[in-house]
Amino acid sequence: MRWPRQLMSLLVVLALLAGPPAVLLFLIGPPVSGWPRTKQIEAWVQQPLTEETLTAALTTGAWLLWLLLAYTVTVRAVTRLHATAAWLRHVPLPTPWQATASGMAGAAVFGITTHPVTTAAPQPPPSSAAGTPGQPAAATPTPDDRAVSDGGILVPGGWLPRDTAESVAAAAALLWLRRRRDYRPRPLTPNAPDEAQTPRLPPAVTAVQAALADAPAASHAPAPTDSFTALVEVLPTGGVGLTGPGTLPIGRGLLLTAVLAGHRHPAPTVVVTRAALTDLLGPDAEPLGERLPQLTIAEDPGDAIRIVEGVDPPRMVILVGDDGDADDVTHLAGVTAANGGRLVVLGGWPTGETWHAAPTGRLHDPTHPDNPAPRLCVLDQVTAVDLLTVIAHPEPTTPSPAPPRTPLPSAATPKPRVPRQSTRGTPHRPPAATHQRLHLRVLGEPTLLIDGEPLTIRRSAAVQILAFLAAHPTGADTRELTAAIWPGLPRSSLTGRLYTTLSDLRGAIRSASGLPVIEHTDDRYRLNPAQVDVDLWHLHAAVHQAAATVTDTTAAWRAVRDAYPADLAAGRTWPWLDPIREVTRRRVIDTCAALADCENDPQRALVLLQGGVDIDPYNADLHERLVTTLTVLGDREAADQLHNRYLRTLAQAGIDNESLGHRATRSTTAQPEPALHSWEHRSTHIPLN
């Protein structure tokens, strides 16, 4: 908080003002006891360096230093008071309706304070043995805030081990890379509405990303399959049946953990019966299950036996207890155990081990009550479907239209708003001219510059707010800000946090510059375009200008390229950022491709396309255009090298391209194809859009 530091500063200043005079008066006395007499002057001329004269000189110097300090403090205080008075003159007075509403609210508050207020006693956290047969079943935990619990991440709808949550975040990042790979640049037209939009990830994914960002960093990076390996070690070799209120939530967690582990192994990892899949994910689960390459759907336990015996041994089998004949379930347990897998029966299993599943994810073995209860991933149905959707292959049919998204900033600078009411009966006057200039840089590392010097912003959420408002020049209300910066948390617990962050941010900017950078009108916050300059707005102005260019394409592209030094908030992993960052990048490569199409000179088109590839090295269409241009110029060897380097880039990023293997080994002596013919779109790993 700021007030302790301010109080300490005030005490130090008071001590400096009052301490030296008190010490000088106590030890030496007043600085002047009267005018010097003639004899004293003659004695000083004859012998100036005496103990008395040196003491008088030092005393006079000390008093002069104190007067200089007092003068400086006085001038500083008068300046601050003048600035505060000027700011208060511009604060709008409440309207009559606002005053009436405030009075009614105050009356209501004072009217209810006489009644006693009771609150429910806080519930103790679940113990490590939660979910044992002797304990009552608890409801699925719904945390009021993200937290680290038992080495995992609490999110709305469940609990994930940390390595599973990190695998979810990695799958989301891979999805964005695939979207970048498959995007085809669109033509640009001046003053046309922006259509280069991208669908957002499901809310459960953004909640996991935000929880990982808030959670303390792990002491070491786990191996990709640590979660699945630990899971296999927890379950009995001969299979286990699960009963209790946590059976289906744990079953969904098992499914997600196994699919994420199998995401790095092409062989089927999970075999699940159709009835079990419906119980876990709902009646519409079958289309989703068919789009999970790591999942094989069996009709019944007998069909699962044939699958296990006919393919590489799956790591896990999930089914319900009454899904088939008991002998088939027992046989399946033996086959799975012989192949090193695990059988999990979601329900009673009379002929095998049965453990109790608590809704918190705890598993309890009733035959060994003293053993520690392991905790597995637990998910509700909505969260499980959201997380699996990010991993699944796209629908074979045409995808549904994406939900509406926030448009990009216009090239024109937003106009400042007119105050609702002037103060003290005088017309509103614009603020006095200032020599300071604020520049908000969000392309690259977000930084607020005041006269070229970066302002230190203590709160990371405050930096997010600045970047979010820069990407939304029309402003954002309280709900939009809290949902973006703290996704997955109840708004009731975030409004105060938002107000505190905004107050601290606005106070820091006002103290450093005296300028009102963030406006607040009608519950909408926006950056004041009259006070702050934003590099993102300049970028889009350059893009709109390039869209109208038909002659000097090189200069237009250079203006766009100079205005785009780096990705939006490069290096940041804020959950709301990826869609806007991708839209911004797409606008830049749209400009690059459009200007290259306007070029009649292949050499100049080659330079433009190379600039686009430098900005997005994962985009297949730009590489296709570049290979085509190199082929037209007769440089077949460069075209082959570019293509092979692109394949290596995709492989290093973890993007699967099984259908491209034969292209990577083609000889440079063979007749080159005129283009890549959209070969990336034949890949079986195409993102959802």
TrEMBL record:
It comes from the Bacteria. InterPro entries: AfsR-DnrI-RedD_regulator (IPR051677), BTAD (IPR005158), TPR-like_helical_dom_sf (IPR011990), WH-like_DNA-bd_sf (IPR036388). Residues 116-152, 393-434, 658-689 are annotated as: Disordered. Residues 128-142 have a biased composition (Low complexity). Residues 396-407 have a biased composition (Pro residues). Residues 534-665 form the Bacterial transcriptional activator domain. This is Bacterial transcriptional activator domain-containing protein. It comes from Micromonospora trifolii.
